[in-house]
Amino acid sequence: MILQSRPAVTVPMMLSPLLVAGVFILLCGLLREPARRRFSAIMLAGAGAAYLGGGLGVWEFDFCAAMTFIAYRGLESYRFIGAGWVLHTLWDVAHHLYGHPIVPFLPMSSFGCAICDLGLAAWYFAGAPSPYPWVSRNDAASASVAAN
Predict the structure, then answer these.
(1) Rounded to an integer, what distance in angstroms lies between the CA atom of residue 70 and that of residue 131?
(2) Cis peptide before 34 (omega within 30 of 0)
(3) What whole-number distance in Å separates Cα of residue 119 and Cα of residue 97?
(4) Alpha helices in the chain (DSSP H)
(5) Using CA atoms, how far apart are residues 51 and 59, in angstroms rounded to an integer?
C-alpha cells in the first residue's frame, strides 16, 4: 500500500474533533438509561459501515462485520462500545494513511474522526455518565452498568 499525502496537522484540526465529541456527549447524555446505551450501540454499528467502499477492499466488509458484533455486545455493556470506538479509531488511521478519507472532499477527515472517536471511547469506558444532574440512571440500569 502507498501512503497518501495529507496537509500538515494544525491545532484546530486537533481540537475541533474533540468539540464534536463533546457535543455528541452533551446530546447523548440527555437520554436516560437504557436508551442511552442502546442508542450508542446503534451509532457504533452505523460507524462500522461508514467506510464501506473506502478503498481497503474486502477488509471493509470484515471490519463492518466485526463492528456489528461489537455493537451487538454493546447493547449490554459500555465496555464493548468503548472498545468499538477504539477499533474505529484504528480504522480511521488506516484510512488516513492508505485509503480514502471518510468525507471525500476533506482529506484530513479520517484524522479528525480518529481524534473524535478516542474522545467518545474515553466517555464510554467511564460508563457514559450523563453530564446533566437531572438525567439519572434508573436502578436496574445502574446495577447493570456497574456490573459491566
Answers:
(1) 25
(2) yes
(3) 21
(4) 11-28, 35-48, 59-74, 78-97, 109-125, 139-147
(5) 10
C-alpha cell at 54: 473506502
Over its length of 148 residues, how does the chain's per-residue pLDDT go in tens digits? Answer: 566 667 788 898 889 999 999 999 999 999 999 999 999 999 999 999 998 888 888 999 999 999 999 999 999 999 999 999 999 999 999 999 887 888 888 889 999 999 999 999 999 999 999 999 887 666 444 445 544 5
CB count in 10 Å sphere of residue 58: 7
H/E stretch holding 104 reads: none
Distance between CA 27 and CA 22 in Å, rounded? 9
